Amino acid sequence: MERILLRNGIPEPMPRIESAYLYQTLHVRGRRPLWLDRHTELLARSIQELFGLRWVPDLRRLETQIAALLDANRHPAAGSSFVRMAFTPTGDLLLIPGAVSLYDGYALRSLRPAAAVVNYGVPYPEYPTSAREAACMLALQAAVTADNRAADNRAAEADIERAAVRTGVQAVIRCDGEGFVHVCDEAPLFAVKGKKVYTPPAPPSVERELACRAVEAARLPLLELEIGREQLARFDEIFYVDHRGLTSLSACEGQLYAAIITERIARVLNKLY
């Protein structure tokens, strides 16, 4: 079946999208996009600041278009699906169908990936752009390549030694030149020690705001502070939150992590909408 997107409300076959764009990815439950008002507020702000354009969406019309998009792509009416709002520098709004979720609502995903820490830069890191996503994918490819090389050849170089303990790398934690970590797979990062939850400073996002609310609702202390790469091994749990829900890391560079507090936060998160 050919997939359909909406460009400024008009259906068309989904092409390969080459141009850069700003985006928000929506969690749609039972045809209702969750937190649509906040997603559009953040997208409009980014459009104004980065593209110099003014965007004032009609939320009811947008909801109708999102439902029509999912119908056209034969997504189930019940449960959760994902839709990306992509805004191009030329002023086009694309509604792009994403995956159908295996879960109903925000969830703690059963997949627990291992992560690698990669020092890489992204253009305009404070904005959700397709370029930022592309940089993340390149970083993941580099981490997996290093992992495979290390498995085949136990080289002595420090970077390769660190890569040698990465088994099954499926996610990357972005680290800057000063050694501070920021996000995992370009999604807000959280770390747990005992019953305290830590998160590095980050630009506003719906997912980060929801996670912070869930931590507070679970009556857990939440501290925002810089986290150094070398500190990651001292935490008990690490998770990140995106449009799908919470993803708990199983390991990062040889350090194994639990998911006990993460499970507690996930149970609360699913009650916030």
At the fourth level of CATH, the homologous superfamily of the largest domain is: D-amino Acid Aminotransferase, subunit A, domain 2
Tally the beta strands: 18
Task: Say what the CATH topology of the largest domain is.
Answer: D-amino Acid Aminotransferase, Chain A, domain 2
Instruction: Tell me the distance between the termini.
Output: 33 Å
In angstroms, what is the radius of gyration? 19 Å
The biggest beta sheet is recorded as: 12 strands, mixed
Number of domains: 2
Question: What would your notes on this structure say?
Answer:
- With 273 residues, this protein is an alpha+beta fold.
- The chain has 2 domains: 4-101, 2-Layer Sandwich (D-amino Acid Aminotransferase, Chain A, domain 1); 108-269, D-amino Acid Aminotransferase, Chain A, domain 2.
- Helix content is 30%, strand content 31%.
- The chain is built from 6 helices and 18 strands.
- It has helices at residues 36-51, 59-72, 130-152, 158-164, 206-217, 260-269, and strands at residues 4-7, 10-13, 22-29, 32-33, 80-87, 93-100, 107-108, 114-119, 169-175, 180-184, 187-193, 196-199, 222-224, 227-228, 237-242, 245-248, 251-252, 255-256.
- Strands 7, 8, 9, 10, 11, 12, 13, 14, 15, 16, 17 and 18 form a 12-stranded mixed sheet that branches. It has a 6-stranded antiparallel sheet with strand order 2-1-6-5-3-4.
- A hairpin with a 2-residue loop joins β11 and β12 (196-199).
- The radius of gyration is 19 Å and the shape is globular.
- Mean pLDDT is 91; it is low at 151-167.
